[in-house]
């Protein structure tokens, strides 16, 4: 006997993500799901962004961390609401864990919620968290071949931030191959070329994310 | 790694469906995965085995269909299959596209008795 089912295996995650998205839309909170390899610079980007935009926008952060709260500790000094989700070894966040911690935020007094996903380029792109959009962060030290190897992320993301451009002289990263790889997959996607430690390119990022926050308010 | 979580969600659906249909044995599980999902079938199969061990689906065969990526061009309306990650219309070169298939994580049916 064959029993037809015809449904999305991740239905449970998707339904919860839709709930989260509806709630955040109602509360006019922009949620950015930041996805990168380990060490690409997600936390450093959040540090710089809090410094530059903390006075202008009400920022909150969800830190997805496998076992520690080190990234959250680094952000404490900005006096923003931060919640850590330990995935206990899991390689990605899911919508149920996001939904649970949203109670810890005063959503009526928040403009933007950054979610630092667990460092990984494949798994997190398949689990909708209910975010407004995904941001892909890649760094020059990982090589210039990432878009072609992880097309799903670069299709799903709404912007790409290429970090550590200060290190290009010390790597075999070729910007033109990166750009043409990315163009094949998603030619319309905005690309920010930055150094989160030296500051290059960050004003353009602040400008853009500020506009995104304003649109959702 | 995400194979494990997806396998867990899959086996929950399989076991729930088996229970509701009074199956004493699930012989086959038919699923389809889009190419963009980048699931490694061998790892997935292994993860699935772990999650259904000692259940009515313990010996079920897993049939995984890999679905190629197909897009629709919003400019000229043609459909095309994406090869070598080139997301541009093969007729008019437009990059204004909608996805038709390739992101599936889909359970089609189960078979059993
Ligand atoms: N040279 C250089 N180093 C950077 C830059 N941005 C970040 N780093 C360094 O890269 C290392 C990793 O940065 P993090 O911000 O912790 O990276 P992450 O993506 O949050 O890492 P995980 O949370 O562990 O995945 C740190 O030592 C940073 O100081 C940059 O633009 N240039
Ligand atoms: Mg970090
Ligand atoms: Zn066309």
CATH class of chain A: Alpha Beta
Would you identify the CATH architecture of chain A? 3-Layer(aba) Sandwich
Based on CA atoms alone, the radius of gyration of chain B comes out at 18 Å
CATH topology of chain A: Rossmann fold
CATH architecture of the domain at 3-68 and 101-112 in chain B: 2-Layer Sandwich
Explain this structure:
The complex is a heterodimer of chains A (217) and B (113). Chain A has helices at 11-26, 42-53, 70-75, 95-101, 146-149, 151-156, 175-186, 202-216; strands at 2-8, 30-36, 59-65, 82-86, 112-116, 133-139, 159-163, 191-193. Chain A has 217 residues and is of the alpha/beta class. Chain A has a single domain, classed as P-loop containing nucleotide triphosphate hydrolases (Rossmann fold). Chain A has a seven-stranded parallel sheet with strand order 4-3-5-2-6-7-8, sandwiched between helices. The radius of gyration of chain A is 17 Å and the shape is globular. Chain B is an alpha+beta fold and 113 residues long. Chain B has a domain at 3-68 and 101-112: hypothetical protein PF0899 fold (2-Layer Sandwich), CATH 3.30.2320. Chain B contains two helices and six strands, in the order H-E-H-E-E-E-E-E. Chain B has helices at 2-20, 41-52; strands spanning 26-34, 61-67, 70-73, 79-81, 97-101, 105-112. In chain B, the strands form two sheets. Chain B has a three-stranded mixed sheet, covered by helices on one side. The chains are: A alpha/beta (217), B alpha+beta (113). Strand 1 (2-8) of chain A pairs antiparallel with strand 6 of chain B, so a sheet runs across the interface. The complex binds guanosine-5'-triphosphate, magnesium ion (MG) and zinc ion (ZN). Zinc ion (ZN) binds at residues 73, 75-76, 78, 89, 91-92, 94 of chain B.
């Amino acid at each position: 006997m064959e029993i037809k089912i015809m449904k999305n295996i991740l239905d449970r995650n998707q339904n919860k993500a839709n709930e989260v998205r509806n709630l955040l839309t109602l509360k006019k909170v922009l949620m950015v799901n930041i996805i990168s390899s380990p060490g690409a610079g997600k936390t450093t980007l959040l540090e710089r962004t809090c410094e530059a935009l903390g006075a202008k926008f009400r920022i909150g952060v969800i830190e997805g961390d496998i076992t520690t709260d080190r990234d959250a500790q680094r952000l404490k000094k900005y006096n923003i609401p931060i919640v850590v989700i330990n995935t206990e070894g899991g390689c990605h966040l899911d919508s149920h864990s996001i939904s649970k911690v949203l109670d810890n935020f005063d959503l009526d007094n928040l403009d933007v919620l950054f979610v630092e996903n667990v460092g990984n380029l494949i798994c997190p792109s398949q689990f909708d968290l209910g975010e407004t959009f995904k941001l892909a962060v890649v760094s020059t030290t990982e090589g210039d071949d990432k878009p072609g190897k992880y097309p799903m992320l670069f299709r799903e993301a709404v912007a790409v931030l290429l970090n550590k451009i200060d290190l290009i002289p010390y790597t075999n990263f070729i910007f033109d191959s990166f750009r043409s790889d990315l163009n094949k997959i998603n030619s319309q996607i905005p690309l920010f070329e930055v150094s989160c430690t030296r500051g290059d390119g960050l004003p353009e990022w602040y400008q853009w994310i500020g506009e995104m926050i304003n649109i959702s308010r | 790694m995400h194979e494990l979580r997806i396998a867990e969600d899959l086996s929950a659906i399989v076991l729930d469906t088996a229970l509701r249909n009074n199956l004493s044995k699930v012989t086959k599980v038919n699923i389809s995965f889009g190419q963009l999902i980048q699931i490694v079938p061998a790892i997935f199969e292994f993860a699935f085995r772990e999650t259904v061990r000692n259940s009515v689906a313990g010996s079920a065969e897993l049939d995984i269909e890999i679905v190629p990526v197909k897009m629709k061009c919003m400019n000229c309306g043609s459909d095309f299959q994406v090869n070598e990650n080139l997301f541009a219309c093969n007729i008019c070169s437009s990059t204004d596209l909608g996805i038709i298939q390739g992101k599936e994580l889909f359970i089609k049916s189960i078979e059993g008795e």
